[in-house]
Amino acid sequence: MSLSTPLKGRWKLLNKIGQGGFGEIFCVYDLETQHKAAVKMERIDRNKRALRLEIDVLRKIQESRFSATFISCGRNQVYNYLIMELLGPNLSSLRKKQPQKIFSLSTTLKLGVQMISAIEDVHEVGYLHRDIKASNFALRMSRKMRSENGYSPGYCCIIDFGLARKYITSEGEHRPPREEVGFRGTARYASINSHDGKELSRRDDLWSLFYLFIEFLKGSLPWESLKEKEAIAKMKKQYTNIGMCKDLPKEFVTFYQHIESLEYEDRPNYKYLRKLLTDMYHRYSFDENTKYDWEIMKENSSSEKSNIKNQKILDSAPALTGTTNDLSRSKKRSLIGGFPKEFQKNEIEKMNGMVFPKNTIERSQNNQTKNSNQKNNIIEEINQNGIVDPQDLLDPESEINEFEKMMKMINGEEKSDTSSSVDIDDNRHCCIIL
Ligand SMILES: Nc1ncnc2c1ncn2[C@@H]1O[C@H](COP(=O)(O)OP(=O)(O)OP(=O)(O)O)[C@@H](O)[C@H]1O
Question: Where does ATP bind (predicted)?
Fold first, then answer.
């Protein structure tokens, strides 16, 4: 079996677009439909298995407008895989690309309404998500989609059900809490219940969402710099929620007060929470024309680019090398096309507030001739859009080669599989489900 062999004879692996604790996500090309899709791959030899559960949940929430479309799943000698709709950037990377690393109130509210609906849809099919965080929401890029309240195109979809748990019994009852539960989730966004080893319920997903809102609006959480979950828990308990809402509209206090009022089995009033956000949206005179921060950033970048072009600043750009501090971020981006290659690379890294994967840069350097067109496209994209995703620098061919190296160890044929089941022993991922 080789990785140049398309999965199920149909999906050809292109570049890597995501990496998490549970799996790697690649962009694939569907030879049948000629569209791109995403594949999440989980090594079969991993101790912890989460993909089977993820597939189950994803298939159950297919009616939700806030989930990626399930396409197929299967397994080969090395991986279990899930093929799904290719979404756009996740909310964590979008926020980090904003000049102050914050979202405006309007963007937070627009996203918030959708995130509540997405969480509600997961709960409605009987599951808790248990890992609500910004990187587990990604934008659907299709321009055809419009939300019912007329907000801009691009739904915010919930992803990654690797830590989900069924909270409803087969009789439709709420499962009783277990005495003691191990920590689940991501420490920064976990509810205090989770730190305290308590059984989680629907309210806890909303606690994580509340923390996310604070992070969106303020750029960080008070425990941002802490690594140990015990220290994070201590700080969470020290901070009053009302203190965290300081300088924020009063509805955020009402928001957490509602969550605080919920008992273990209570169904959150999702509609009420959405209404709090939409009321705030209108109170601040935002409307259907109010754009997302990244749309504004893109527009600013484009217009600055054309201004700069008009003034022929690019011609004198080399003289500005190393003295760009007094320029705005987007102006820096626009100027970048005029600088020598090394400067471009370093400045792009700094200005985007991100570090490109080292091997990507090295690869890029080693294959300069081969990749020069690709690089030019990226510089061009920065000039056009003001945003570039580090993943865009990945060379699809190299990614496939890397994979192929790994796969050389493996002999034998890829097993064909029906899309309805992945043959994974349930017991092997019980540590995650329980
Ligand atoms: N369908 C998709 N389309 C586009 N990008 C995706 C898709 N699914 C996942 N990603 C990207 O890959 C990243 C990691 O995916 P995911 O969270 O599912 O993996 P994980 O291994 O469970 O991660 P973690 O350990 O953080 O929980 C996401 O943050 C997102 O940016």
Answer: 40
